[in-house]
Structures are given as structure tokens and as C-alpha cells.
Amino acid sequence: AITTGHWVSLCDILGLPELSADPALETPMQKIDARARTLPIFAEAVAKQEAAQLAGALTAQDIPFSPILRPAQMYDDPHVNRPGGLVMTELADGSSFRAPGLPFEVDGRPVVVKNTLPQTGADTDEVLRELKTKG
User: Fold this and answer.
1) SS3 129
2) What does the domain layout of the chain look like in residue ranges?
3) Of 1, 8, 40, 104, which is least packed with CB atoms within 10 Å of its CB?
4) How far is CA 3 from the centre of its chain?
């Protein structure tokens, strides 16, 4: 949760009032440091929720979230399907597939990545040379 308000709302939505009242979880740093303890609790609480109902409750409280989908489901995501969201990528054997592009811009232009992937090991020498000059 980004803010204290989000934290309290999230705990309320998930039925975890003991976490929002825990004095050991008052500051953002305390919450980060307690992840090993709190993440399993949140995971269990989230697993008990219906996805659509949870999404509605989070949206109603203005809590930023994004569902974690299986890889095949990304092709149905409106953010992935935005203009330029999917790019054709070619493998060394000539076959191609659609892959998500980078979701941000630099100086108002989308970041373009190399769309042809080298064959495994094809650029090893070049990479090692670059590492030597930087090391």
C-alpha cells in the first residue's frame, strides 16, 4: 500500500484489522522490513477473495493494483493491446512471435528494442568484450 490510508483500507478490505492496528507496521520502512511476516498473511487473505469483487473494492478505495495474469492472458490486456503495445519479434531461425513492448516513453517517444533475437551464444564474444572494457 502506498499511503497509510491505502494500508488501512487494504487491511479492512481483506479482513486484516490486526495488521492496520499493529504498531510494528506504522511506517513504510517497518512495513517493508516486515514483508517476510506479512506477505503470507496477505497472500492467504487475497486467495480467499473473488477476483472481480476484490478488484471492485480496491478500485472503490483508489488503491492502485494490477492483476497478475498467466502469460497467455496478457494478449487480452488492454494495456498490452494499446497501439505499440505488442511488437513482432523474430528468432534466429526466422520464426516470429508477438511480444509486449516496453510500456514507457523517453522524450515522448516509445522505447524501441531490438526485434531480432540472436541465436544462443551468437553475441557472447561481443558481450564479454564490452564487460572487459567496463570492468
Assistant:
1) helix
2) 4-60, 71-119
3) 104
4) 19
